[in-house]
Design a protein that fits this description.
The complex is a heterodimer of chains A (about 950) and B (about 425).
Chain A: H1 14-22, H2 27-42, H3 51-56, H4 63-76, H5 81-94, H6 100-112, H7 116-130, H8 135-151, H9 153-158, H10 161-168, H11 174-190, H12 201-213, H13 216-226, H14 234-244, H15 253-267, H16 275-291, H17 296-312, H18 332-345, H19 351-361, H20 367-383, H21 388-400, H22 404-420, H23 429-434, H24 442-454, H25 462-470, H26 478-494, H27 496-511, H28 517-532, H29 534-541, H30 557-564, H31 570-574, H32 612-617, H33 625-634, H34 648-660, H35 662-666, H36 675-679, H37 688-694, E1 723-726, E2 734-743, E3 746-755, E4 765-768, E5 776-777, E6 792-800, E7 813-819, E8 824-830, H38 845-854, E9 860-865, H39 872-881, E10 885-892, E11 895-903, E12 909-916, E13 926-932, H40 938-949
Antiparallel strand pairs in A: 1-2, 2-3, 3-6, 4-7, 5-6, 7-8, 9-13, 10-11, 11-12, 12-13
Helix pairs in contact in A: 1-2, 2-4, 4-6, 5-6, 5-7, 6-7, 6-8, 7-8, 8-11, 10-11, 11-12, 11-13, 12-13, 13-15, 14-15, 15-16, 17-18, 17-30, 18-20, 19-20, 20-21, 20-22, 21-22, 22-24, 24-26, 25-26, 26-27, 26-28, 26-29, 27-28, 28-29
Chain B: E1 4-11, E2 16-21, H1 31-41, E3 50-52, E4 57-63, E5 66-72, H2 78-96, H3 101-106, H4 108-118, E6 119-120, E7 123-124, H5 129-135, H6 141-150, E8 180-193, E9 199-213, E10 219-224, E11 233-235, H7 241-247, E12 249-252, E13 257-266, E14 276-284, E15 290-299, E16 308-315, E17 320-327, E18 331-335, E19 340-346, E20 355-362, E21 374-382, E22 391-397, E23 404-419
Parallel strand pairs in B: 8-23
Antiparallel strand pairs in B: 1-2, 1-5, 3-4, 4-5, 6-7, 8-9, 9-13, 10-12, 10-22, 11-13, 14-15, 15-20, 16-19, 16-21, 17-20, 18-19, 21-23
The chains are: A alpha+beta (about 950), B alpha+beta (about 425).
């Protein structure tokens, strides 16, 4: 007796019949009727009309019947909210049932009824169940909080359920812990900025304990949660790794991959010299390989992830090439992935094996796979230089098979090999030309034409070959047409005498008979080039091409690092960050790998650019990105001094908009760092990069520009040339470039506003975010007339240093908001520190000596100023212009030593010793030692020195 | 919401025969994207497991001629979903003896109850067969009859005992009159052999499947003669990892009934013995519509045991019309539609090696096939674990009775391919 009988009632009066049966007095008949209803539901039939009758069956002692009714309720409550209220009482009663199974069932089902009216009744029973004595009920209730949050987030917060949920992380039962973590992670997903999962070493310890004891699914939740934690140092990272490693031997592949994610991420913090680092690397290989013996679907996901891991740390799987060999009955999606990884692992050591395999694959049945195998041979040639010759001969063998699609693919890749190794394998051109007639795919035809054009001087009958293509010019695809045009022009430039007619012909075909704008454009350009300046044409058309390398198909490193944080997720399958494809992920926070925290790489590196590694060492309290965003958005965007308040609504709109897109990409940043994370030495490498580009740091470029601001003289301090801070692209046509200056005690921000839009701009205002030295505009931004399109205006904005202070990273980072009648725009820039050097920064000699001794040696920082051929006096006077004062000068063993002091606007003194070697003209590096009670400024003082002395 | 939003079960002819929604109802039309992918893939095995649609992701597995298609709405670990779907299929297999459309349709209400019990709000709830069976009784012919007479239900109403203990895989109060513990050491050889007979790639995938029927809470220790062979192992959650790390002993409180204790891999770095060799000559004449086929299978490193259950399957090139062969042993079939040649050889006797020989007829006028077919070989060797793994002893603690113990070894061909 089977359930299939339930499907047989497809007669007309089915619903009526069921209705009658549901209202039957006989229990058995009722149950059978509910089963029939459920059966109809499973195949997508609409049985919602029976709602009241089914709900009537709910009050029963029969657990099976109850479950069935619950199943029905969950499905249809949404469409019958008024009716669903009828069920509430039974739920509330069931939540008090002595049997924990029924309590749990009730709370579970209630959460699945997505009806607003009902959710309010849920709160009390849920609160009780969260504190139930039975862990089975507690763990079910934990999940219910997540469900409720999805229906009504505000309600959950108001009722304090989130706190209760957080408490459950410390529950004694591992299953409850796992479910609480899962629920919190889910809620946190919709609130990226909240610090719901604010992990600390204690809670991490609890999670690690629960990890060993909970179910496999719970382990996945916990591991994914651990992956978001940022250990405070390498020791903590190692100890977590040690406790996670046993998960690599779990039978559930999802557990294994989540564990791999945690390890790959935390490994980043371990020093490579550590023995443990090597051990860990060794432990990672076997589980990854084992994933490949699972079901094909699992293999596929595993392979996509291995592809990332191999790019990040090739050493893990470098000896495991053979496991990626393709079996003929692998599904095609597995075959293609394996092939890709084989190429990534290919090296001089194993290339012979790989090529033998690839050649084998090239004779398989599946056309797509064969094509990819042929391409793979080409990629091997490009990747492993020593193998190029073998690859080419393998490809030639394949061309000999005359299998049409193999030949075409081979020609496409040989073109790439020519690009990589010019003038090496041209001997094969003859063989290629033999196959000209069999090429029917545009890509292959285009590749062949490129080869003929590129090597026209070596192919005797190049003109004939190209001419033969020209006959059917209009039937070719655009790709081929473009290539043919270029090839014939190349041919003409190489052998002008015989090919004049041909080039005329192709140019007229392209410009007169074609309606493809790309083709016409290219045709016209060539025509004009050839007619006006054939020498220039030669330089343009026959210019040396950049070599191609295997990097072209590697994932870009920053994206790779981000994807490593997403191992095991959909992002890792698509090789795109979640923000790029997950619907509704506006709030998705970018993740990044933790910086290495080894102590060996201290401030020795003289490079000025603040790298993520250096920044991480500063024991600074750096505000988390979330806060920064908040700050910027809260800026009062009116003129800061006494301007009237702006129309708030429009400004707000703009701000919200920006949060969605613009700022997100501008401040491409890290884990949704809570302040605690920031405190643990974690910094966002992201925001520094765009800022550095726009900042006047690269002052070496100075001489390329006509310096508009006065070059540093004795009267005023050095002013860097203006650079673009806000490109027009990012600000709806408003371009802002600028620089900073200091003259007789006052700091100025010299701005040029350019309107590159088509409409007039007006109502300008400017505001700064809080910053390290309290820089703030001392007056409103005065733009007297509206800015017409294509007009520029120069403004000198006076600044003071009485604004509110917040430590930035890098220290001299300034985040600026500029508003006009169109929108609000944000940018950040780095200001040179010397604008903060005050005029009374000359220290007394005695004082200097005492202070120098007084500041501990750890605070001393050494820098090198490279390639500066000034003598001591020139240096001294140049620096004095920017308020760096020389207190004493000594000559020790042929070296000039300058002792200098400077004071920042906030009263910080910096003492310097500058060593110059005038006697040795070939040795032009100056050595700078800086001592300061706040050593984090040293690096920026050095940058200022460097900028001033080199201009 | 998290994890799996909906699940559709689809048969090979593209009928959706069951749907389950954990949140709101997702229209069946979402499956159109799946059908599209299926059409593109031609072969059912080649449908990609992760498909993106404008509003959802479809993650699917293909098991026993059924597609399990889950609908996902947010970023989610795909392996999690795939593992879970396989677990669902395993559970159906376990409950109904087979995971087929008929079995699922015949037990649709149990299926529905199971799905509800296995996943709550997208969080897996109870996926251990032991626990599920306490919550929802599997159907037996006898029970259905009894149920319909007495009106008793097949839903348990006690809290499953294992659910919350630290050993969630075992229920309390297990009782047997005969206490038995059986272990099957099963090894499969995956290998690719090239034209000349040398091994391109070989590894052993081993598992130890257990059938444990022991009363109470037995605590078992299983030790091996040569545990060093096991350097790449995946464990059932019941195994104490620390003990294995330090002593190389499998120490565990077993689940009740059938389960997989460990799976392991002996990789190509160690020498993998290849128990059979194949001599082959498959050739097609240029400009003629025929070819020759001559294959002989012989024993190689089989440690003195008999190689049996030998079956060879070959996907012949498309141009092959039919094959006229003579087998010295066993029987062969050739399916002219799928172009699959299957030769059921049986046992190999070294004195008289099995041979299959004859003429291949090609479509007239078709070009000579370029590809060389791979030979897929299956075989079995009883009483042998080809890696040499041997169980040393099994000890039981915690219970007083003396169980009956047994270990069986078997070696099989996994993906064993010979290129020609």
């Amino acid at each position: 007796m089977t359930d299939s009988k339930y499907f047989t009632t497809t007669k007309k009066g089915e619903i009526f019949e069921l209705k009658a049966e549901l209202n039957s007095d006989k229990k058995e008949k009722k149950k059978e009727a509910v089963k029939k209803v459920i059966a109809s539901m499973t195949v997508g039939k609409d049985v919602s009309a029976l709602f009241p009758d089914v709900v009537n069956c709910m009050q029963t002692d029969n657990l099976e019947l109850k479950k069935l009714v619950y199943l029905y309720l969950m499905n249809y409550a949404k469409s019958q909210p008024d009716m669903a209220i009828m069920a509430v009482n039974t739920f509330v009663k069931d939540c008090e049932d002595p049997n924990p199974l029924i309590r749990a069932l009730a709370v579970r089902t209630m959460g699945c009824i997505r009806v607003d009216k009902i959710t309010e009744y849920l709160c009390e029973p849920l609160r009780k169940c969260l504190k139930d004595e039975d862990p089975y009920v507690r763990k079910t209730a934990a999940v219910c909080v997540a469900k409720l949050h999805d229906i009504n987030a505000q309600l959950v917060e108001d009722q304090g359920f989130l706190d209760t949920l957080k408490d459950l992380i410390s529950d004694s039962n591992p299953m409850v812990v796992a479910n609480a973590v899962a629920a919190l992670s889910e809620i946190a997903e919709s609130h990226p900025s909240s610090n719901l999962l604010d992990l600390n070493p204690q809670s991490i310890n609890k999670l690690l304990t629960a990890l060993n004891e909970c179910t496999e699914w719970g382990q996945i939740f916990i591991l994914d949660c651990l992956a978001n934690y940022m250990p405070k140092d390498d020791r903590e990272a190692q100890s977590i790794c040690e406790r996670v490693t046993p998960r690599l031997s779990h039978a559930n592949s999802a557990v294994v991959l989540s564990a791999v994610k945690v390890l790959m991420k935390f490994m980043e913090m371990l020093s490579k010299d550590l023995d443990y680092y090597g051990t860990l690397l060794k432990k990672l290989a076997p589980p990854l390989v084992t994933l490949l013996s699972a079901e094909p679907e699992l293999q596929y996901v595993a392979l996509r992830n291995i592809n990332l891991i191999v790019q990040k740390r090739p050493e893990i799987l470098k000896h495991e090439m053979k496991v990626f060999f393709v079996k003929y009955n692998d599904p095609i999606y597995v075959k293609l992935e394996k092939l890709d990884i084989m190429i990534r692992l290919a090296s001089q050591a194993n290339i012979a094996q790989v090529l033998a395999e690839l050649k084998e694959y090239a004779t398989e049945v599946d056309v797509d796979f064969v094509r990819k195998a042929v391409r793979a041979i080409g990629r091997c040639a490009i990747k492993v230089e020593q193998s190029a010759e073998r690859c080419v001969s393998t490809l030639l063998d394949l061309i000999q098979t005359k299998v049409n699609y193999v030949v075409q693919e081979a020609i496409v890749v040989i073109k790439d090999i020519f690009r990589k190794y010019p003038n090496k394998y041209e001997s094969v051109i003859a063989t290629l030309c033999e196959n000209l007639d069999s090429l029917d795919e545009p890509e292959a035809r285009a590749a062949m034409i490129w080869i003929v054009g590129e090597y026209a001087e070596r192919i005797d009958n190049a003109d004939e070959l190209l001419e033969s293509f020209l006959e059917g010019f209009h039937d070719e695809s655009t790709q081929v047409q473009l290539q043919l045009l270029t090839a014939i022009v190349k041919l003409f430039l190489k052998k002008p005498t015989e090919t004049q007619e041909l080039v005329q012909q192709v140019l007229s075909l392209a410009t007169q008979d074609s309606d493809n704008p790309d083709l016409r454009d290219r045709g016209y350009i060539y025509w004009r080039l050839l007619s006006t300046d054939p020498v220039a044409a030669k330089e343009v058309v026959l210019a040396e091409k950049p070599l191609i390398s295997e990097e072209t198909d590697l994932i870009e490193p920053t994206l790779l690092d981000e994807l490593i944080c997403y191992i095991g997720t959909l992002a890792s399958v698509y090789h795109k960050p979640p923000s790029a494809f997950v619907e509704g992920s506006r709030g998705v926070v970018h993740k990044s790998l933790p910086p290495r925290t080894g102590s060996s790489e201290s401030a020795e590196s003289p490079d000025a650019a603040p790298s993520a590694g250096q920044a991480a060492e500063q024991p600074a309290v750096i505000p988390a990105q979330g806060d920064l965003l908040g700050d910027l958005l809260n800026l009062d965007l009116g003129p800061p001094v006494s301007g009237p308040p702006l129309a708030a609504s429009s400004v707000q709109m703009g701000a919200v908009d920006l949060l969605g897109g613009g700022l997100d990409s501008l401040l491409r940043s890290d884990v949704g760092g809570s302040p605690a994370m920031g405190g643990s030495g974690f910094t966002a490498p992201g925001p520094a990069a765009p800022a550095a580009m726009g900042a006047p740091l690269g002052s070496g470029l100075g001489d390329l520009f006509d310096l508009t601001g006065g070059v540093g003289t004795l009267s005023g301090s050095y002013v860097a040339p203006k650079t673009v801070w806000l490109p027009a692209m990012k600000a709806k046509g408003l371009e802002i470039s600028g620089t900073f200056s200091r003259q007789v005690g006052s700091i100025c921000m010299d701005l040029v506003l350019t309107n590159k839009a088509l409409q007039v701009m007006s109502d300008f205002a400017i505001q700064f975010n809080r910053n390290s030295f309290g820089l703030a505009p001392a007056a409103p931004l005065q733009v007297h007339a509206p800015l017409a399109p294509n007009q520029s205006v120069e403004i000198s904005l006076p600044l003071n240093t009485v604004g509110s202070v917040m430590k930035m990273d890098p220290l001299n980072n300034l985040q600026v908001a500029v508003k006009n009648n169109i929108d609000v725009f944000y940018f950040s820039t780095l200001y040179p520190l010397h604008i903060l050097f005050v005029e009374d920064g000359k220290m007394e000699r005695q004082m200097f000596l005492a202070t120098w001794k007084d500041i501990p040696n750890e605070n001393e920082a050494q820098f090198q100023i490279k390639d500066c051929s000034l003598n001591a006096d020139a240096v001294s006077s140049k620096l004095q212009g920017s308020n760096i004062f020389t207190i004493a000068k000594r000559n020790v063993e042929g070296q000039d030593m300058l002792y200098q002091s400077l004071k920042l606007t906030n009263g910080i003194w910096v003492l310097a010793e500058l060593r110059i070697q005038p006697s040795n003209p070939s040795f032009t590096d100056l050595e700078l030692s800086l001592k300061c009670r706040a050593p984090e400024v040293s690096q920026y003082v050095y940058q200022a020195y460097d900028a001033i002395l080199k201009n | 919401m998290k994890m799996i939003h909906s699940l559709f079960l689809i048969n090979c002819s593209g009928d959706i025969f069951l749907e389950k929604h954990w949140k709101s109802v997702v229209s069946q039309s979402v499956c159109d994207y799946f059908f599209e992918a299926q059409e593109k893939a031609i072969d059912v095995e080649n449908v990609p497991p992760v498909i993106s649609t404008p509003h959802h992701y479809l993650i699917s597995i293909y098991r026993d001629k059924i597609f399990f298609v889950s609908v996902i709405q947010t970023e989610v670990p795909p392996l999690f979903v795939i593992e879970f779907l396989h677990r669902v299929a395993d559970t159906f297999q376990d409950y109904f003896g087979e995971c087929s459309e008929t079995a699922i349709k015949d037990n649709v209400v149990i299926v529905y109850e199971l799905l509800e019990e296995m996943l709550d709000n997208g969080f897996p709830l109870a996926t251990e067969s032991n626990i599920l069976k306490e919550l929802i009784k599997p159907p037996t012919i006898l029970r259905s009859v009894v149920n319909s007479i007495t009106g008793s239900s097949n839903v348990g109403d006690t809290l499953p005992t294992g659910q919350l203990s630290n050993i969630p895989w075992r229920r309390a109060g297990v009782k047997y009159t005969n206490n038995e513990a059986y272990f099957d050491v099963i090894e499969e050889i995956d290998a690719i052999i090239d034209k000349s007979g040398s091994t391109v790639f070989a590894e052993i995938q081993g598992v130890i499947d257990s059938c444990i029927k022991l009363s109470g809470m037995p605590d078992l220790s299983l030790s091996f003669m040569n545990p060093r062979l096991l350097d790449d192992v995946s464990f059932h959650p019941c195994i104490r990892f620390k003990r294995w790390e330090s002593e190389r002993v499998l120490s565990f409180i077993p689940p009740d009934g059938n389960f997989r204790l460990i799976s392991y891999r002996v990789s190509s770095q160690n020498l993998v013995a290849i128990p059979v060799y194949v001599k082959h000559l498959i050739s097609f004449k240029e400009n003629s519509s025929s070819g020759r086929f001559d294959v002989t299978i012989g024993p190689k490193q089989n440690m003195g045991k008999t190689v049996e259950g030998v079956v060879m399957t070959v996907h012949m090139p498309k141009a092959v019309l039919n094959m006229n062969l003579t087998a010295t042993q066993g029987s062969y079939t050739f399916d002219p539609v799928t172009k699959v040649l299957a030769w059921d050889v049986g046992k190999i006797t070294p004195q008289k090696l099995p041979n299959l020989k004859g003429i291949v007829n090609l479509q007239s006028g078709a070009p000579k096939p370029e590809e060389n077919p791979s030979l897929n070989i299956q075989f079995k060797i009883q009483q042998l674990a080809i890696s040499g793994l041997k169980v040393n002893r099994l000890d039981m603690y915690g219970e007083k009775y003396k169980p009956f113990k047994g270990v069986k070894y078997i070696t099989k061909a996994g993906k064993f391919q010979v290129r020609t």
